[in-house]
From TrEMBL:
Keywords: Oxidoreductase
MF terms in GO: phenylacetyl-CoA 1,2-epoxidase activity
Pfam families given in the database record: PaaA_PaaC
Enzyme category, top tier: oxidoreductase
Membrane spanning stretches: none
Positions of the UniProt region annotated as Disordered: 295-328
EC number: 1.14.13.149
InterPro entries in the cross-refs: Aromatic_CoA_ox/epox, Ferritin-like, Ferritin-like_SF, PaaA, PaaA_PaaC
BP term (GO), one: phenylacetate catabolic process
NCBIfam families cross-referenced by the UniProt entry: PA_CoA_Oxy1
Protein name per UniProt: Ring-1,2-phenylacetyl-CoA epoxidase subunit PaaA
Compositional bias annotation for Basic and acidic residues: 319-328
Length: 328
């Protein structure tokens, strides 16, 4: 059977068979690959999620990147440099995964800088002290691990495979954040206060990273049916809380939620409700740093135009030099 990717017009009446094949592949927990036929909605949903994920990695370089020149030691500077560079790599794998679905990378970047595509709300909060670098590693990369490890089993092959390496690196990032905080907690009273202050500011925005609650998440049901998402937003948020509470105890910090307590009956923590209005405001562009993040991204894009021009000219020159029919 021809399961090569086609637009509905090209399937010429064969679509029900192709749809059945697609449904059976999903039901068997097998992967959809770029050349397989897929429903347009599946393709659009993946491009939306993967592009937003890629944009988040690239914008996510900014809050921590601001501290590279102010890192307190050469060791911390080298670590932070490597981490921020990893985020750039994650963005590039993800843009490549989106390209396998027929998306154009320049178009996706254009959509981001024109504000037509989203990126994670978490990167619209300021990094006020070096403790924020540790807390981002602990909370933000910790949340990323909870959200992204299940994406290694996502039904779309290139996305799932990209996530394997990304998750390994996120895991390393989370540990460097926690290790930095442990060092600060063994330091002076001022250092311990800096950590607690950073924890207070980042806790609720980190819970919001998982998206709106399930009953207000328009995409979840379909994305879970297609096995793009494996767990709901609330389920992953709950896992993150359960994972983080004992780590906070060990570190000696207080999570800023008076409703947080262990529920013996449910075998999970109860916790308070994030401010969903705040999440919606930040997603719509009205967070503390949205303007700054977008301005910097636009400037970087404009300043990088000579690199893109040079790379295009170099590729054209190489292509002209290659003998006709040569295989690279
Ligand atoms: N921020 O129906 P829903 C990282 C949007 S990178 C902004 O639940 P879905 C890291 C959502 O897009 C972190 N927007 O959507 C990087 C949708 O809007 P549209 C990024 C959000 O897709 C550097 C609408 O709200 N991680 O960890 O089923 C350094 C309704 O939501 C947010 C990923 O991208 C938000 N927090 O579920 C360190 C992971 N939440 O598109 C770390 C992959 C929701 O309909 N993505 N929205 O206009 C996902 O897992 C899912 O896309 C989400 C949302 C769970 C985020």
């Amino acid at each position: 059977m021809n399961t090569t990717r086609s637009s509905p017009a090209e399937t010429d009446g064969a679509e029900p068979v192709l749809q059945q094949h697609f449904d059976a592949t999903i039901a068997r927990d097998q992967r959809i690959e770029p050349r397989d036929w897929m429903p347009e909605g599946y393709r659009r949903t993946l491009i939306r999620q993967i592009a937003q994920h890629a944009h988040s990695e690239i914008i996510g370089m900014q809050p921590e990147g601001e501290w590279i020149t102010r890192a307190p030691s050469l060791r911390r500077k080298a670590i932070l440099f490597a981490k921020v560079q990893d985020e750039a790599g994650h963005g590039l794998y993800l843009y490549s995964a989106a390209e396998t679905l027929g998306a154009d990378r320049a178009d996706l970047t254009g959509r981001l800088i024109e504000g037509r595509q989203k990126y994670s709300s978490i990167f619209n909060y300021p990094t006020l002290s070096f403790a924020d670098v540790g807390v981002i590693g602990w909370f933000v990369d910790g949340a990323a691990i909870c959200n992204q490890v299940p994406l290694c089993r996502s039904s779309y092959g290139p996305y799932a495979r990209a996530m394997v390496r990304i998750c390994k690196e996120e895991s390393f990032h989370q540990r460097q954040g926690y290790e930095l905080l442990m060092t600060m907690m063994r330091g002076t009273r001022e250092q311990r206060e800096m950590v607690q202050d950073a924890v207070n500011r980042w806790w609720w925005p980190s819970l919001m990273m998982f998206g709106p609650p399930d009953d207000a998440s328009p995409n979840s049901a379909q994305s879970m049916a297609w096995k793009i998402k494996r767990h709901s937003n609330d389920e992953l948020r709950r896992r993150f809380v359960d994972m983080t509470v004992p780590q906070a105890e060990k570190l000696g910090v207080t999570l800023p939620d008076p409703e947080l307590r262990w529920n013996e009956e449910r075998g999970h923590h109860d916790f308070g409700t994030p401010d969903w209005d705040e999440l919606m405001r930040v997603i719509k562009g009205d967070g503390p740093c949205n303007d700054q993040r977008m301005e910097r991204r636009r400037t970087a894009h404009e300043e990088g135009s000579w690199v893109r021009e040079a790379a295009t000219a170099h590729a054209a020159k190489q292509a002209a030099r290659e003998p006709k029919g040569a295989v690279a």
